[in-house]
Amino acid sequence: MTKDTTDNRRARPSPVPLGQRRPTDGKQVTDPCADEGWELDPGAVSDEYASLVSRQLALLGEDPAREGLVKTPSRVANAMEWLTRGYGECVEDVVGDALFAEEHRNMVMVRDIELYSLCEHHMLPFFGKAHVAYIPNGRIVGLSKLPRIVEVYARRLQVQGRLTEEIAGAIQRVLEPAGVGVVIEAYHLCMMMRGVEKQNSKTITSAVRGSFRDDARTRAEFLYLAHGRDAFGP
Ligand SMILES: [Zn+2]
Description:
Layout: H1 3-9, H2 47-59, H3 72-83, H4 91-95, E1 99-102, E2 108-119, E3 125-135, E4 138-141, H5 145-154, E5 157-158, H6 160-175, E6 179-188, H7 189-192, E7 203-210, H8 211-214, H9 216-226
Parallel strand pairs: 2-5
Antiparallel strand pairs: 1-4, 2-3, 3-6, 6-7
Helix pairs in contact: 2-3, 5-6
Bound molecules: zinc ion.
């Protein structure tokens, strides 16, 4: 494929409706991609989902029987099951008994939590970082649990704003802290890949509860830390 072709296709809907595309002749595809696979936790692949993916390939004009695609439906089903595993998890189970009595009332923050999710409008990835903070009110949670809470909600079909709210709400619910703040900065492939002139734009969302909402100084401290400036630096 020449560079020209790639550029021309970018950001434009196909001029040929899916049902009218000419199917690809699988025999013409030379040098099929090696079956190196992406085995995510192989196991209960949904046959029904896999057959949907097979149909999807055919609708795109591909030949689902050609060598490079034979295992694609089951791989995609497997990957999707893994990428949406948050539907099968709940925060109460994830936190378990990792709650500890603690009297201090200083802000606790975990920054730069890696985050990968799928936008519910296009089922394409958005990814970035979450910064999560709270002020204890008699108890704290094990630090490793905050990234796990982010995962429970990120591994579902999402919009970034709701994801941010759900994380803040869950921490409020299980920890009953004096306040919670969550900031997410993410890049959305549905914007970047479709070439809507937003290749480099980052979406930032925040959700605050309790003292993070009501106390301007707490909120300011949180945002200052969340945006990556060293509070103790020059
Ligand atoms: Zn999208």
